[in-house]
Design goal:
The structure holds 2 protein chains of 2 kinds. By secondary structure, chain A is an all-alpha fold. Chain A has helices spanning about 1-15, 25-60, 80-90, 100-115, 135-145, 145-155, 160-190, 195-200, 215-230, 245, 255-280, 290-295, 305-330, 340-365, 370, 385-390, 395-415, 430-440, 445-450. Chain B contains 9 helices and no strands. The relative contact order of chain B is 0.05. The chains are: A mainly alpha, B mainly alpha. Chains A and B meet through helix 2, helix 4, helix 5, helix 6 and helix 7 of A and helix 2, helix 3, helix 6 and helix 7 of B.
Chain lengths: ~450, ~200
């Protein structure tokens, strides 16, 4: 992105002044960061607005009433905007007992954590703000920081209701990170990578290729994941941190106006995030139930058609993620809130053992029940061979490697380089020598140092 | 625009994150409230995770965020909230402890500085993300294999003296984890014994 802005936009715009920027120039990097940041901020904010409206409508339907109907003409679709304006105009109050600095910082900590995790979430093939190799791990790590904002809010408010809410929250989140991590490990080891773009691309094709249908254990582990995800984003029936019937409003009792609003943007942002993660890990990401654009051949065509295919992939991804959030809303208005001991029992006695059993089961399925069968047991998934999965790369890396290999071989032998299969997700043996020579040519001293550990 | 042309953004980000790390570390040192200390420590560790990201060590950075910020510090604040007495929340360091801490800290600083100054040649960090991403297999797989007890990098090591010391991490890893388990069981036992004594008292009454 930075290269594109420097070479294609800035150099063309400022070419008359004799400006010639290198591809990795600061101006392009800053502009690229701004573009990514603003787009993601827009996604999080619009998603929060949409889901707050959807929550009211769904809650209304479940409780046999209409929900918002007036604002914005029909269906009350502008209700969330009206709420936002109301919150902006509210007075920003702070209790006398509160720790002023932490009280002011806490909502931003929560929101920043939820927003930062989006940096590693791909929306379509290669549509990700930061290409991070261990994106799954990064998202889980950053999502775990959201709890810190809640704890700070609870502590700094100087109110016993807030403190109780924060204590419940920290106990709950620390416990639920264990089964959540175990569930996420299952698709990661099936794919042999923690790169979300690669995991998504590996499920190219029909819905039988979705990892949720890989074997009975991945099917089971998805439900455990979804339960733990609801708990880790503090939604009912696990919303003990803000239990209205017992703790007034829990950790955000003392908040009002925009600071209160930030907590809710963080909550709805992380709901979409965990649903998006589930979509990529279990439901094929941007690869739909029917691979229309793969059958048309657009997704590897390059140019505008490929862009259209990627755009449709992003829409596909968002639809699946929104369905996930809708199920969370449905669950919230259907199930009653658990007690704190029931929450802990659910985590430690049910979710963790279930996740562990599913982990072992999926591992056994891959290895033919630990050597009883000849190979991996039957699966509807048509993923690539196990040995190739760990070697599989994002398409932009494959392109960079092929380019580097072309340069290297052209420099060495003076013959035109063999262009590896650039866009095909399936890695054949052809790219193998290309890759090794590419890493030899491009591999930095830094990454080699990392290899020694 | 032309003055910006020669600018190395990598160095700018390095200085930014380094200053944030050091600044919040000092803030931890000079604040008296435990929860504020924890908050500054979160920011300090987050900024040092940023430094790891800058070098392309994303796994280590995420590990830092997950274990230290998301795990240890949450537990720390949790503990403070459970035992929230004003005596512990507000810490005043006596001057004797300042002196001890200065001695220990400056000894460590001297050690680290001498190690840093002895490095013969600093390698410049490579901002080429494609290369880093392509070298993923060479970077993370050996670490994972090393934890499982297989040192792949033995194959490329020629010095026999160094080769002798290259063992897998499996045994130290297991020893550390069993040690942690022992500590946890010990803590649970001590906490439990107290409660049992109280129960016996109640029964007697």
């Amino acid at each position: 992105m930075a290269e594109l802005i420097n070479l294609q936009i800035l150099n063309r715009l400022l070419g008359w002044a004799g400006v010639d920027l290198p591809p990795s120039h600061l101006a392009g990097a800053v502009l690229a960061a701004l573009v990514h940041g603003v787009i993601l901020l827009g996604i999080v904010a619009v998603a929060a607005m949409f889901f707050i409206w959807a929550e009211r409508k769904v809650a209304g339907r479940i409780q046999d009433r209409l929900g918002p109907t007036r604002v914005g003409g029909r269906f009350g679709w502008l209700q969330a905007l009206a709420d936002g304006i109301k919150l902006l105009s509210k007075e920003d109050v702070r209790p006398r007992e509160a720790d002023a600095l932490l009280f002011r910082c806490a909502p931003y900590v929560s929101f920043a954590a939820s927003f930062t995790a989006y940096l590693a979430l791909p929306f379509s093939d290669g549509w990700v703000a930061q290409h991070i190799n261990s994106a799954v791990f990064f998202i889980l790590a950053v999502l775990g920081l959201e709890v810190f904002g809640v704890i700070l809010a609870g502590y700094a408010s100087g109110s016993k209701w807030s403190l109780f809410g924060a204590m419940r929250e920290s106990a709950q989140v620390v416990s639920y990170e264990v089964p959540l991590g175990l569930c996420v490990v299952v698709p990661v080891f099936i794919c042999g990578t923690m790169n979300l773009v690669t995991i998504g691309n590996m499920q190219t094709g029909w819905l039988t290729n979705w990892l949720v249908f890989h074997d009975p254990f991945t099917f089971a582990v998805f439900w455990v994941y979804f339960t733990c995800a609801i708990a880790s984003v503090n939604r009912a029936p696990f919303d003990l941190a803000e239990a209205e019937s017992e703790l007034v409003a829990g950790f955000h009792t003392e908040y009002s106006g925009m600071r209160w609003c930030y907590f809710f943007m963080a909550e709805y942002g992380s709901m979409l995030l965990v649903s998006g993660l589930a979509t990529i890990l279990f439901f094929g990401g941007w690869h739909g139930p029917v691979p229309v654009f793969d059958m048309l051949g657009w997704s590897s065509m390059g140019g505008v058609l490929q862009y259209v295919a990627e755009l449709a992939g992003a829409a596909n991804f968002l639809i699946k993620a929104v369905v996930g959030v809708t199920v969370m809303i449905w669950v919230r208005w259907t199930l009653p809130r658990l007690r704190i001991d029931q929450v802990m029992t659910t985590c430690l006695k049910y979710c963790t053992p279930l996740a562990a059993v599913c982990f072992l089961g999926a591992l056994g399925w891959q290895t033919g029940m630990f050597g009883l069968a000849a190979g991996p047991l039957w699966s509807p998934n048509q993923l690539m061979a196990v040995k190739q999965r760990g070697e599989y790369r994002e398409s932009w890396v494959l392109k960079a490697e092929a380019a580097a290999a072309a340069e290297g071989s052209a420099a060495q032998a003076g013959r035109p380089a063999a262009s590896g299969d650039r866009d095909e997700p399936d890695v054949s043996g052809e790219t193998e020598p290309a890759r090794s020579s590419a890493t030899g040519a491009v591999g930095s001293p830094l990454s080699r140092k990392g290899g020694v550990g | 625009m032309m003055t910006l042309a020669g600018m190395d953004w990598h160095a700018i980000y390095f200085w930014l994150f380094a200053l944030l790390t050091c600044g919040f570390a000092l803030a931890v040192l000079f604040s008296a409230n435990v929860v504020r200390m924890a908050f500054y420590l979160v920011l300090c560790l987050g900024a040092s995770a940023g430094l790891f990201f800058l070098t392309g060590a994303e796994f280590v950075a995420a590990m830092q965020l997950m274990i230290y910020v998301g795990g240890t510090l949450v537990l720390l604040v949790f503990g403070v909230m459970l035992t929230a007495h004003s005596r512990f929340v507000s810490l005043r360091t006596p001057s004797g402890e300042w002196i001890l801490a200065l001695i220990a800290g400056s000894a460590l600083l001297a050690l680290l500085l001498s190690a840093a100054l002895k490095v013969p040649d600093w390698v410049k960090a490579n901002p080429d993300r494609a290369a880093i991403s392509a070298a993923d297999v060479e970077a993370t797989t050996p670490i994972g294999m090393g934890f499982a007890g297989v040192r792949v990098d033995k194959l490329s090591q020629t010095d026999p003296q160094l080769l002798g010391g290259m063992s897998g991490y499996l045994l130290p890893f297991l020893i550390v984890s069993i040690h942690l388990l022992v500590v946890l069981i010990g803590a649970a036992y001590m906490a439990r014994a107290k409660r049992r004594a109280a129960a016996v008292d109640e029964g007697a009454v």
